[in-house]
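Dear colleague,

As promised, here are the two records you asked about, laid out in our usual form so they can be pasted straight into your sheet.

NAME FIELD: protein one
SEQUENCE, THEN STRUCTURE:
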Amino acid sequence: MAEEKSQVKETGSADERRSMIREAIEEFVRLQREATEPAYKAELLEERKRREALERRLNELAEENRKQRELREAAERSAAIRSELQRLGVSKVDLAYRAVREDIYRAEDGRLVARTEQGEVGLREYLARFVQENPEFLPARVGGGSGTVEVRGGVTSRGEAIELEKIRPGMSPEEAERAREEIVRIASQLLGSR
């Protein structure tokens, strides 16, 4: 019985020792965790700041790239319009370009097209029609010859008077067409007599 009591005491004290050792280890682990936690938090915070800075920089680069692409496309569009106007024989390319640039845009498939009342039209077709409707952008034709021609001042072929003050941007299409016809008629008479 004495042996049993001593074994129970040893077992009891062994269990107590184990539980004390376990508690000491748990306490040590808890203290270590608490000691390293601020370092982890600081490291995580620093990592978050680096990631946010990188994301900001990537967004800035993406925006800069988008702007550069838009500038490049605008320059290509401008060059294509100007070269086509030159090909059509327009002498006042800058003036004609300013007149048509708002109507021309890049379609989804990459082609340059213009908006018209009939819908989308290709660049060449639109500019050819524009130049045909606005011959004042073409160089003056020199007919040759010498001498002068009598020009009826200010009266159209229809017998209507044209006032210079009424020729202005924004005038009605009918008035603009009458003024163009009269300018062409007078220019033809002047140039035809030379």
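NAME FIELD: protein two
SEQUENCE, THEN STRUCTURE:
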Amino acid sequence: MDTVNIVVNSDPVRHDDLRALAEQTGPVVSLVIPTHRGGAETLDDRRQLPPLLDAARKELKQNYPDADADAILKGVAGLADDELFWQRQADALVVFANASGMTTFRTTLDSQPQVSVGDHPNLRPLLPLVADDQPFLLLAVSQEKVRLFEGDRYSITELDLGDAPASTEDSDYYTREPQFQHQSGREAPAHGHSTGEAVVRDSFLRDVAKALNTRFTNDDRPLILASVDSGNPDELTPTELHAGAWPLAADEGRKRHEALLERFGENIGTGRASHDSGKIGEEAGHGRVDTLILTDQALREATLGDPEKAADLDAAVVHTLRNKGTIDVVSAFKGDHTTGAIFRF
């Protein structure tokens, strides 16, 4: 199946990526480097790397004296000499390195240089990219053609139709409705007949809907419809379909954030939710956090403020992901709270 990348020179970041990173064992070096999309500034971008590496080596030596700093940082250090690599960046480069290797993400983050070394990766800079994404399904349908896609902020992929008819000609109306074929010994109305055509069309659309309902019964992604009411979808490329669908999907994502805050408010005070960072860390370590919620302010304070608080947040994020919980980022809580969690039990 063909996938079309919508965001170029940037790497998609999804919950599954965070879960894979959460499995990294420490010590883990986490770096964020602001970058440019081209031009002479790319030379300055890679010049930011050596001082960050020096800071990482210092932290490794101080906090992990038995770790092989050179082995951990070998792959990262090699980036400094890769001129082509720096010419193919977006707005910020995020790097994770430990004894097992290195992972990089070119992102659209607006950030400043950062380095941290800890038992867990610092995934906080990536969280807004995942929290603001919204996977969706897209059905482009006319009587002549049916196309089914799945997508998110970064890409769109056409899917096999499965049991859904590809057009009215592919509908099983005629075999399902024998009375249409013979009515009191007479032939059925011609396909082009206005009344017969409407009946076939409605039956075709029911067939499509039934197939999709069966296939995606337990799928909570929003289904977006592109139909002839807003122009002929047959003439639109996947990129054009994505351009029309993404604002609708993003709006569903905003509603999801609002519903999450409402759910949190309903559970606060019942023992099923808390703003207490100590309790959140403890419950995350025991696999009881269903959803960890951080505000934009929490991300900024944790990055620039107390290292111990940052380490505790990193641990809570990692343990939540390892235990199949989800992470969300909201603009703010009521009051001055910056973190929250909803517990499984």
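A couple of things worth noting about protein two: The two ends are 40 Å apart (CA to CA). Residues 13 and 129 are 7 Å apart (CA to CA).

Best,
R.
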